[in-house]
Structure formats: C-alpha cells, structure tokens
Design a protein that fits this description.
By secondary structure, this protein is α+β, with helices and mostly antiparallel strands. It has helices at residues 26-41, 70-90; strands spanning 7-12, 15-19, 44-46, 49-51. A hairpin with a 2-residue loop joins strand 3 (44-46) and strand 4. The chain is globular. The two termini are 22 Å apart.
C-alpha cells in the first residue's frame, strides 16, 4: 500500500495526504489507490457497533522541476480529490 519511504499525514479535519517520492508507474499508483480505498471502505467496529468509513482519493502528479508552490500543489490535490468525490457519487458508490 504505502511504502516505508512514502509520507502520510493529516492536513486537517478529515483530509489526509500521501506523498510518494519515488518513481511509480500508473498501474502501481492505481493499485495503491485501490488498496487504500479497500482499507478505508472496511467498516470500523467498536464493540457491537460497526461504522462505515469511506474516502475520496484524488491523485496529483508532481514532477521534478514543477514550478508550482507547495500551496498550489495542495490546492490542485484538493481539486483532484473533489473531482474523485463527484465521480464516485455519480457512480453511486
């Protein structure tokens, strides 16, 4: 899922980010997203209560030499997440 050299962190509220700073293929990235979604789609069980968990996962590629600022990259990642959320809702997921 997330490799030891990747960095996962909370941005605030219910927003998180995973920074993958290694070369990955589109297929590897798609697999990572699928594994994260599967893990997050598994309900959390607390005592006798089972609570659904879900996530919208946006993907943004940043390459060496990208001229965007960190704030611009986070903004674009946030836009990608909302695009993924809209797509997931339109599929009824």
């Amino acid at each position: 899922m997330v490799a030891p050299d990747d960095v996962a962190g909370r941005l605030g509220g219910d927003e998180f980010v995973v920074l993958v700073s290694r070369e990955v293929t589109k297929s590897e990235l798609d697999d990572m997203v699928a594994q994260l979604r599967l893990a997050l789609d598994t309900p959390a069980t607390i005592g006798a209560t089972s609570l659904p968990i879900g996530a919208s996962i946006g993907v943004l590629e940043v390459h060496l030499g990208d001229v965007r600022t960190a704030d611009e990259i986070l903004r674009d990642a946030d836009l990608a997440m909302y695009k993924a959320k809209r797509a997931r809702r339109s599929l009824g997921a």
